[in-house]
Amino acid sequence: MDVERPHAAIELPEGSWWEWDVLAWDGGHFRLAADFDLSYHHGLELAFTAPLFVSCPAVFQDPAFRAPTVEELRRITRQLGGRPPVLVAFEADAGGSEPVSCLVAAERLDIVQETVLRYWREDAAPGRRFAPWVQPPSP
Fold first, then answer.
1. Which parts of 2-130 fold into alpha helices (H)?
2. Residue 79, H or E segment
3. Do the beta carbons of residue 137 and residue 120 sit within 8 Å?
4. Is 57 left (phi over 0), alpha (psi -120 to 50) or beta?
5. What is the DSSP letter of 131?
6. Helix (H) or strand (E) holding 78
C-alpha cells in the first residue's frame, strides 16, 4: 500500500462557495455544485470522472477541504484494491450538531468555474449553460 505519498488537499478558486449540493451522479460522473446561494445559479463545480467511492450528504454548507488522513487512504486503498488517482476529503455542515466527514475517490477531478443557471430564462446569453433539470417551457 502506497501511503507514503499522501493526496494533497484540493484548492478552490477565489469565491464565496458556502452552499453545496450534488448536481449529478451516475456511473461515470459525480458533480458537486457550489455558490453563496444555490437558488438561481451556481458558479463552481467539482466534476469527478469515474467515481470509485463517495461518502457525502446530498446538501451541505461551508466545507473545509483537507488532505486525506493516512487511515482514510489505507481504508480506501484496501476497499478499492489499489490507490485511487484522486482522493478528496472535507468536513462540512450538513445540518447536524457536528460537521460530517466526507470522502470522494475517483479517476479524475476537474474544477469548473462558470455560472450555471438553475431556472429557465428566455434572455439567457447564447451558450449559457443550464443545470441538467432545466428545460424550456413547452409550446
1. 70-80
2. helix 70-80
3. yes
4. beta
5. -
6. helix 70-80
Q: Is the dihedral of CA 20, 22, 23, 29 positive or negative?
A: positive
Per-residue pLDDT, 124:
85
The string of DSSP letters for 42-58 reads EEEEEEEEEEEEEE--S
Please give the angle made by the CA atoms of 102, 91 and 50, to the nearest 5 degrees: 30
Q: Over the stretch 17-63, which tens digit does the pLDDT of each residue have?
A: 999 999 999 879 999 999 999 999 999 999 999 999 999 999 999 99
Phi/psi of residue 76, nearest 5 degrees = -65, -40
The conformation of residue 77, written as its DSSP 8-state character, comes to H
Residues 6+ apart with CB under 8 A from 82: none
Domain ranges of the chain: 19-130
CA distance 39 to 21: 11
The number of CA neighbours under 13 Å toward the Cβ of 113 is 7
Asked if residue 15 has pLDDT above 60, the reply is yes
Name the nearest CA neighbour of 85 among 106, 66, 55, 110.
106
Residue with cell 488537499: 9
